[in-house]
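Lab notebook, bench 4. Continuing the backlog of folding jobs that were queued last week. Each job is logged with the same field layout so the records can be merged later without manual cleanup. Today's entry covers Tyrosine-type recombinase/integrase, a 365-residue chain. Filled in by technician R.K.

JOB TYPE: sequence-to-structure
TARGET: Tyrosine-type recombinase/integrase
LENGTH: 365
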Amino acid sequence: MSIWKRPGQDTWSYDFTVRGHRYSGNTGATSKREAERTEARLKEDARAQARKQAGQSALGLTIGAAVSRYWLETGQHHANADSTLTDLAWLERHFGKTRLLASITNQDVAAMVASRRADKVAPATVNRTATARLRAVMTRARDLWDEPVPRITWKNHMLREPQEVIRELTADEETTLFDALAPGYRELARFSLLSGCRMAECLDLEWRHIDWHGEYIVITGKGDKTRHVPLSAALRALLWPLPRAHARVFTHVIRRSSANHRRGDVAPVEEEALNSHFARVCKKAKVIGFRFHDLRHTFATRFLRATGDMRALQLILGHSSIETTMRYAHVTAADAKRRMDAMSAAAITTETSTGSSTGGSKHMK
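JOB STATUS: finished
OUTPUT FIELD FOLLOWS
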């Protein structure tokens, strides 16, 4: 308790902070125990007043208020802010705006997961858009907003995610695919293939993020984490000739007029248009079962095959854990097996050849 006696006084004073506001004064109590009780009561009154000013009930923060505050403080600044807003809106609809955050139990979280699964989305999507998002809101409420948040065993609510299939672009597929991609989209896809960057990271790339002299590119990825991707000779050759018509690097020429653009305008490549164009081109080029994200997988497998440096790959891809990068270990394992098979085949050929030669000599004798 933050209480003390001022020099020359018989009563105890208090000094505490609630949500950034400082409260201080005299408790009027002469005993320490009574002063502590008075301070506790004053602190609770201050919290209640703060909740009232924030539009909360006396029992705590509502889902609606929590979601709005989370969005204003951090959600709107996420790299994929639109996705964050969609997830928060879903949580608000599911629980209801007036539901108290403090009333959410493990049973409620389990019911939420079941409801999200009923939308027929993948386990990874449930984990990311519902469970992890609610956890982020409740953790912030507990740690930063001084809210009475219940204890949730989050690990028990995370669905098991099937291991992602690593799809690598073959040389023939690469030629066919890139020949079919339209200008603007082609350069963006090539950048992903040469850097291992995710779609959102490519779309958000701005010229100011490229340090031509330091030879690196500043990439902001998942969780707003920043990393430096080396500006390789191939990336420099790709990026340097591109027009500086916009703050964002990857642009295309508008072919049809719309409410936002006229025909012939230069505009940044947008996610929805990229997804649509890429899927259409893959189908036309007969590159089956290939997604834009597989360009990142292709970069990773090629890098690991060429260098074998798992740690460097982790840093380039921006993985927080080496275990995530280890998904690509199958590349070196498969290459090692091929080399062993080739060695064995060569040894068998040599033995057969030697045996035949020896046998022939004995026959001649």
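OBSERVATION: Residues 3-41 form one domain.
SIGNED: R.K.
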